[in-house]
Structures are given as C-alpha cells and as structure tokens.
C-alpha cells in the first residue's frame, strides 16, 4: 500500500537495496577485520582521524555502504562517481564542490599541529624545538618527528666555498643583495669565500627532513596559530621524537 500510495502521488521510492542499506556500523554485517573493535576503520570513526583508504572487491560486498557509513558518522560530504561513465568534467565538478570542505579540514589540521607544538613547549621536558639553528641541529641528529614550516618563509640558504682549498660555509640571508655583501674569508688560507649554490630555506629544510624520514607540515598564516608560528618562532619549529638537552 505504501508503494502504491507513493506511485499515485507521482513519487517513486528508492530501490529496495538502497532502502535496506545499513546506516551505521551496528547494522553492518561483515568486514570485521576493518570495523571490529580496535580495527582500523572503527578507530578512524571513533577518533575522528580519517585517513585516505581504498576499498576493493566485487560488487555487492558493501564497499559503498561502508563508505557512506564512514562519511555519515564523521559528518563528511559524500560524492559518488562511476569509473565507467564519469569523465574529466564530472571529476572537476566534485573537486570544486569539495574545495571549501577540504580547505576547512586543512585549517583544522594546521591548528591542531601548532597547538600540539605549543603544548609540548610548555612542558618541563617537552618535545618542542624552534628557531633555524636549533631545528637544523635536531634534524641532523634525527630527533625531529614533525617539521613545521611557515608557508611565508622567504629566506635563502647560501653555500660559500673557498676557491683555493674548498672549505665551505653556509649562510642564511633574506635577499640576494644581503648575500652579495658577505665578505667571509677562509679560516685555512684566508681566501675570500665565493657563493657556489643557493636554495630556498624551506626547500633546504624539507631536504634535510626527507633525509631523516621526518614529517613536514607547511603552516599558513590564515589562523592565529599559524601567524604565531611565523612571528614568534620565525616560521621554523619542530615536534621531536625524544627530548634533547641543550
């Protein structure tokens, strides 16, 4: 009768499989290795820390249903695309719709990272480090877990070399004109050091972080936390793997 009533009013009910989809993990059957207590997807939902993942399998095993449950549980937008019929146009439309949501998530993530750094900074033996020299030292010894760099960091790292004996020394400068004024002499042969190479300071730190398998987070200045990182800490900070005595 309900079906006839809806048809009579010009409305069609969704297909039966759609109406019977479980709406939460309690109603979902199977995939206990993913949604069982202590398992990865359940942990993502319960903690709110959602990571990228791919569900693979034949039709009918519950991939879409499980994805919908994750999105609904975390109050996230959910879009579907057909791998058969969707083209570049459809993909771009979804990306455009998602842009505000993704931007908000990035801001939240940045705030959480900086707040974690600030929290470590207040502890007696906190796992926090800041300032170019200190963070560089901690990167070199492998103590950095997560490197925080301000997106507006604009300094350059210059490498000067002695043309006679090859002795080198690095300098951080804000402008090329500042580098041109450097008149440093070799401590071994007193020759004037010459600029040999230059790198963006952020790129320099990223390369050091990659060598030590440290995570890198770029922090914008769109939030109070991001602005504080730039103004109070010079735009360079780190969360450490272990406490370092200075």
Find the structural class using helix and strand composition: alpha+beta
Q: Compute the average pLDDT.
A: 87
What spatial order of strands do you see in the largest sheet? 1-7-2-6
**Rg over alpha carbons:** 27 Å
Q: Mind telling me the CATH superfamily name of the domain at 2-73? A: P-loop containing nucleotide triphosphate hydrolases
CATH topology (fold) name of the domain at 2-73: Rossmann fold
What is this structure, in a nutshell?
Helix content is 42%, strand content 16%.
Protein model, in words:
This protein has 246 residues and is an alpha+beta fold. The chain has a domain at 2-73: Rossmann fold, CATH 3.40.50.300. Helix content is 42%, strand content 16%. The strands form two sheets. Strands 1-7-2-6 form a four-stranded mixed β-sheet, with helices on both faces. It is elongated, with a radius of gyration of 27 Å.
